[in-house]
Batch of 2 targets.
Target 1
Amino acid sequence: MNEPLGLSLRVNGDAVTRSVEPRLTLADFLRHELSLTGTHIGCEHGVCGACTVLLDGRSVRSCLMLAVQADGCAVTTVEGLTPAEGLSPLQQAFADNHGLQCGYCTPGILCTLSEYLDINPNPSEGEIREALSGNLCRCTGYQGIVDAALAYVRSAQ
Amino acid sequence: MKPAAFDYHRPNSVAEALDLLARLDDAKVIAGGQSLMAMMNYRYIAPENLIDINRIAALAEITEEGGNLRIGAMVRQRDAQDSPLLRARAPLMIEALDLIGHLQTRNRGTIGGSLAHLDPAAELPAVFSAHDAVLHLASANGAREVPIGGWSQGFMAPDLEPDELLTAIAFSPWPAGHGHAFLELARRHGDFALAGAAALITLDRQGRIDRAAIALTGVDMGPVRLDAAEAMLAGQVPGAELIAAAAQCADRVAGIEDVHASRDYRRRIAVVYTRRALELASQRAASGAGR
């Protein structure tokens, strides 16, 4: 059973079928099998949030899941949140508000916020900070990220 | 590849899972994986066999039977938060769930996983302790029930045999109108708490405390019930002095310490959070906010 196991899932809308070792994490599957390198890997033990993706619409840490556990699911990565041309309104808000410097944490934050702002489309600043408590950023001091989220919320009203 | 190689098993039923647990050596059950995957990525543990219970739908149900709430071990923390039944009947649990990790970890993490992992600072064991919950275990040899008070056998060591599966936790919810509060001190939202307190209170028609339950997390290896404080409160009208005196019982727990906080500091925090939780729970009981 340590041998490769088949999995079929949808990634950013595309049907994907592969055979992988069960111990491959979903994060490594996305990066190394599918070359979707927008999903970043930071701590690999569920603390930093850089590897956050959407699994059937819910934000999850892809380093804390096996790829084979996503069998039958729909996964959305930052590539799937990005339009064919240009940036999504949330991404544009990050660009406009200095919401990123090195950009390492950004894909995870965008995935977290895209679920959270669906649940709570009109959050306070405090609520945004709490929603982002599972995503670590070592550059911006978070102010630009929170400003970006608030600017997006205002523009979406 | 972060985790060491393992044989992966994906049972579709409890019976299949119990058969695997009976047959296989060095097997670990994976539910939400929010602690286990981290430990495997570190190769802190490297089980030969991984039994994935995520496809066992029967373990993911929340039901009410004969006045008892029964929560399947595979119920995800996020689904528990969204459960209309739990929101109506177990507000203490709802308040605690909001403090567990982050949205991303609650989306995967399970009720049973938290109980089986049994981190000393976990919120849910204290919630279930306050509710006098009973854990339901199963193995190929039959079923067994363990009261929450006997669940912790030491540091991260639940009363769970290698061939047993935690299937559900059940408790009798408190009556409508009871007061509840779960408060904890953590350095950042979602971090493990340095100490926390769960309180449940019902008042009689004269405004006296009919029944109180207080459980602490973060101060000992497992959840701690403050029986002495509960006895002090019973039959009394809740007031600042009485609550402060009852909260002082938290200073007498054995205590644990680590790099984050000393034993004495945790006890002091436990006293403060017990007092605040009792104040909030009795206010809510008086206003019937739990109704």
Target 2
Amino acid sequence: MKKLLFALLFLVSVTAFAETPADSAFSKSYVSIEGGEMYPFGDLIDAVENSYYGGLGFRYSYWDDFDGFVHFNYAYVKVRAEGIPYPGVHQFVGRLGLDWHWKKIRPLAVGAGFTCNWTRADSDDEVKYYSGRGGMLLDNETEFGWFVRANLPFLYFKEYTAGLNVLWEELWTLPERSNMLTIGFYIERRIW
Amino acid sequence: MKFSMMLTTLSIVAFSVMANAAIDPEMEGMEPVSRGDGTFLIGGPTYHFDRILGAGGIHSESELWTPAKLRDRLLFNRMSALPSWTPMEPSVWIKTGNELGDMIYQDVITAEDRPANRTPILEGGFRTPSIKGFWATVRGFQDDHYSSRTSSFRRKEVSDEFALFGENYPMFSSIYGGLGFTNDVINTSVLAGEEYIWEYAESSRWIPVHMAPRVEARADFWNFALTAAFEKAEYQNDKFKESGERTEVNGSVLYKCSESCQKGVFQMSAGMAFRFVSDDGDVYTGLDNDRVLWPFMQLRVQPLRWLKADAMFGMNDSDWLVQDSIEMNSPFPVKGMGVTIGVKNISGTRLNPLADDVEYFSILNKKDTIDLAPSGQMNLVQAYLAFADTVASVSLGGRATFWAEHGAETFHKEGVVELSDMDFRFGDVSRINSWIKGITGELWLDAWLEDMFKFRALAGFERIDGPTERFEVTPSEFFVAFTGDWLIRKSFRVSHSLRYRSDAQWNLRGHDPLVVKGDWYWDATFEQQFPRHGLYLTGTIIHVLADEVVQVPNGDYDRLRFVCTVKKTF
């Protein structure tokens, strides 16, 4: 019922973005490299260890006060649970979202978006088993989710910017949702 | 005044079209997934029961052949937009998605009650801009949704993964490419590809069909539209070491009413659809005389601006089908208000005269020839009254109909074979030779704010008097639906569809009826638009609220799923 009420509220709510700013899409764009660490939360702590990740990003102006961004990153995620016949999992993540540059908290930007998580066990074992724990990951697994993030640029040098990304992510997995915190530093270069 | 009149008229005409709002379908041809104005039961990408509440009769819309479906695909006895071989507009696109609920890292800590595997969707393709009229296109698409429940059964029937990618035994998997030429005079294309399809048969079996190659050519010039396809289809049941092959040529020729003709009182179109097949080995279905030629004619008479009559008539040596209607709008325009009354009729020997005539049934030593073309005829008559009233940015509309059908197509079940928790039936397609009567009522309310916001609330009910236990599907009695579309700052689209439909019931597909419980559904599409750059980034989440249930006998779970698309137009 809560979901239904939420849906109804969402459906009839009045938008907060009524004014139409000038079309500034892609008037600025940036590429970045990013590295950091991913921390599992909740029951996921029993499943996998904290993991380093590295990746690439692309950010572009969407409206005057909003940027769009796309991220791709890779992590090798070590398995913490015992009895799993492989040491870790290859994880590729793609994210698409929007950052809001609210002038009252500049230079901090807050954002949200959707994430796509692709995983496959680090296993050369030809024998596939699907019934036990860890079996599904022997084949490709994909799941979507959503995230919120804070983007704090703190160092500027010519066309380069260094900053910090703090991102909370929930994957729509079963039997429970999977929550993760990601903290990373990036260096970004403006293209135009 | 003209604008409000136009909106009012559009509000009536487009009522059924708007019922699914602007939710992006997960794949072209799967729009019924997000419709709320009737009974829409999805068995998979290649089969759905789609009955609009106000359409009259007890059949599913896709069971009925109409000239508008000439370029749809014939999947067993249904006309289906999926898998579409209609070339996209010049663009490049990629789509991916998944049924939500894969375990990812939950996998390594979940020992009991492990969820079944969730399956993805994939599509990618391009169509080049025109270079001196010439263009090229490639499209690969595959929908693995609705496949996991039945895959362990279906995989035994085929000798390989039966798909272009992966091991999920998707209900269809298709790839094609080709060349086209378009200028002011002609629009033509030739495409060739390979396709895997599981077709849902009258017995409730899923029949695997592998087309290699499939070639389709189209040409539109002057007032003609020509289509021809060559299909070399392989059939198999690896479990019983059965195999067969069907070579088929099908297509159509259509002469369309020209633009000047459309301004006249008499507007006539005519054409012919055809199929020629050659079967060898185990093909599981049969077409009488290995051919069907289906000439048809369409006529519109519009003596007055507010009065029009439409008729479609087709006939060949074994079947005939008539669809006609007379519709009258209010002859005296009243500001903001529109009233339409009309009658329509569908009569014929078969809903789809192009479909095969028999299905060969054989499971667990039970053999039968299922007759798909019943003797006699059906007659459906319907009268309707619709109105819409627009004041400022609000419009209220409604429609009431009465319909009666005699000779409705149904299935005479002689027996059911149970295998691996699935029921398969045999018998014959037959008729309900008594009158079935129905009344329907629908009300809708539209509100909009310039081009930024559109909202619609609609509700409908239907009362049917007849032997419902003999219906293939007893449709839902009522629905309510709310749709909302925002276009924020002219470049961010948010579309919603929230709806409820009451219980529907399959009566004839197994030992016991299958009740598809009434439920709420919520779909939403979010889209970043860059119109100046022709770029669109879209995410759609489907069936958020609903319980994940099987909606069609021997079908698969209708799961919560998410699909995203990136598209760049040229």
